[in-house]
Amino acid sequence: MVKEFKNKKEWALILGGSSGLGLATAKKLAKHGMNICIVHRNSKSQLGQIEKDFKKITQEAVAFVNYNIDAIHPEKRILLIENLKRKLEKGKIKILVHSLAKGNLKPMVSDSIPILQTDDFQLTIQAMGISLYDWVKSVFEAKLFSKDARVVSFTSEGNSKAWKSYAAVSAAKVTIEAITRSIALEYAQFGIRANCIQAGITNTASLRMIPASEDIKKHSLLRNPFNRLTLPDDIANVVYLLSKDEAAWINGTIIPVDGGEHIS
Questions:
Q1: Beta strands at 145-155 and 64-68: parallel, antiparallel or unpaired
Q2: Helices 118-125/167-186 angle, 10° precision
């Protein structure tokens, strides 16, 4: 395998990289020689499996650091960026991947369980949408982006379809798409490209938290031309493609990566 990023002192900063799409992306980029920094938030009980996954990344002979912190907390973000300046050792961030999944999955109407409140929307939109801008702004101001940098965020079909109990996350997905487009426009002059991947239905922990997720999966299998769900590796492969030099003219787009699921 050609490791095109090896010895280039280039890094991937992955927000939410301990599982799902973020972890698959970290493993894929590491295989091609990119140094990896993962920001995640996990309990002690989860760290055993996470450390095993992280070990697989280090076995690719790349530099690796991880921070178990709340990526949404402004002061912690500032401290992490200052620490990262020293850790990178004159290296630069080639790609920033936003894969944070922190939000409320509550219905708008219910007689038996708590319903969605305004602050549920605010928390979810901040964590899964606005935080992308917070991180891009912080990395940019710290002068840590490479001359040809990429920003990748993740959205879903919930950006245009209504699913029960998904309203807050849906609003966050629309928000992150809008912010990604604006980053693509306003940061282009500094060599930063930004794109959003619309992932197909993927059997991750985040999906399984959605009420009626089993029904969603069954419906997706019927719609998908390849009769299978999207895999985290499918998404990681496209993030890798977007990080390559040949993808430099792709900017400001929402890219469906679902095997054609969205067409039916």
A1: unpaired
A2: 40
d(CA 171, CA 156): 11
Question: Letter for the amino acid at 137?
Answer: K
Q: DSSP states of 93-162 as a string?
A: EEEEEE---------SS-SSSPPP-HHHHHHHHIIIIIHHHHHHHHHHHTT-EEEEEEEEEEE-GGGTS-
User: How confident is the model over 171-223, as pLDDT tens digits?
Assistant: 999 999 999 999 999 999 999 999 999 999 998 888 888 888 788 889 899 99
Asked if residues 54 and 64 have their Cβ atoms less than 8 Å apart, the reply is yes
**Both structure tokens of 208:** 């399984």
For 14-49, the pLDDT digits (tens) are 999 999 999 999 999 999 999 999 999 988 888 889
Q: Return the ∠ at Cα 81 (arms to 95 and 171), rounded to 5°.
A: 60
Instruction: Tell me the one-letter amino acid at 126.
Output: Q
- What is the percent of the chain with per-residue pLDDT over 90, rounded to a whole number? 78
What is the fold, at CATH topology level, of the domain defined by 10-263? Rossmann fold (3.40.50)
Is 131 within 8 Å of 181 (Cβ atoms)?
A: no
User: In terms of Cα–Cα distance, which of 78, 92, 175, 193 is closest to 135?
Assistant: 78
Q: Where are the domains of the chain?
A: 10-263
259, 234 contact by CB (below 8 A):
yes
The position carrying tokens 């961030």 is 93
pTM: 0.95
Give the integer Cα–Cα distance in Å for 135 and 180: 12
